[in-house]
């Protein structure tokens, strides 16, 4: 599976195979910006054919409760895993820092 390294983050194109602009498929070679939200990312990818910038999320999202804000599934799973392991936000962030993964703020941890 092809991988691309951008901003010290390595991506595979397995999630982007189904990501299309209206003109054609997107390529990981055309990432122009990345917003990191703890473990999840939002990639801004330029289409080769039309030049449009497309926003692609690396995780699906869900709402906490009926009116809660959207939360990335991967971030919720990281929180659940840390709670199952008996650690909180500080220890999870220490683990993330050791792995060179962006840390999670307290608000994200609690949502």
UniProtKB/TrEMBL annotation:
This is Mutator-like transposase domain-containing protein. It comes from the Eukaryota. Residues 24-110 form the Mutator-like transposase domain.
